[in-house]
Amino acid sequence: xxxxxxxxxxxxxxxxxxxxxxxxxxxxxxxxxxxxxxxxxxxxxxxxxxxxxxxxxxxxxxxxxxxxxxxxxxxxxxxxxxxxxxxxxxxxxxxxxxxxxxxxxxxxxxxxxx
Amino acid sequence: xxxxxxxxxxxxxxxxxxxxxxxxxxxxxxxxxxxxxxxxxxxxxxxxxxxxxxxxxxxxxxxxxxxxxxxxxxxxxxxxxxxxxxxxxxxxxxxxxxxxxxxxxxxxxxxxx
Lengths: 114, 113
Description:
The complex is a heterodimer. Chain A is mostly beta strands. Chain A has strands at residues 4-6, 10-13, 19-25, 31-38, 42-49, 56-57, 64-70, 73-78, 87-94, 104-105, 109-113. In chain A, the strands form two sheets. In chain A, strands 2, 4, 5, 6, 9, 10 and 11 form a seven-stranded mixed sheet that branches. A four-stranded antiparallel sheet of chain A has the order 1-3-8-7, with no helix packed on it. The termini of chain A are far apart. Chain B has one domain (3-112): Sandwich (Immunoglobulin-like), CATH 2.60.40. In chain B, the strands form two sheets. In chain B, strands 2, 4, 5, 9, 10 and 11 form a six-stranded mixed sheet that branches. The N and C termini of chain B lie far apart (41 Å). The A-B interface holds A 31, 33, 35, 40-45, 48-50, 56, 58-59, 90, 92, 94, 96-97, 100-108 and B 6, 9, 31-32, 34, 41-45, 48, 88, 90, 92, 95, 98-106.
């Protein structure tokens, strides 16, 4: 089974802190994604990566950056956390080369910025 | 701009009812339409649809895609309280676009005993 693991289930950070959310997948998938999920808005794509050191902005990249130094790891960085970044963050991976765009999700990180 | 729109946003039914959830999409170089179920945790995969008119079925759940009208439906028959969840629809683009998925807002289904 594909496993996508996010480093924390719950995080509480202060406004202005730099925050790192880590995600690791164990199936050698090429694609990795970061979404945030807010009530009434569904999942919104922040950034995605289709190869090591490659990254593409999603729909809401402002205030975030990402890092993919190794194929299995995709990090989301909040440069200076703000209260409007309080949300559920979901990491996902997929292997579209197989013709299957199904994404596998991690368990989510609920981030609260105070 | 790519978008996926689901309706209704929320739905309350009683056990035994049949429900239909709707998903319309506009995705550049569309490749696939996916349905996920999300309880109080990460979304879990239900179906992937790539061809029009071919129903996919899993137990009491079924789904079909219309690529001409750009929509999909998810049907749940004989609903049970365990079907209560948020159902997410996502449109997937071509591999050479990174295979990214665009999600709708979700439909929150509540099944009452």
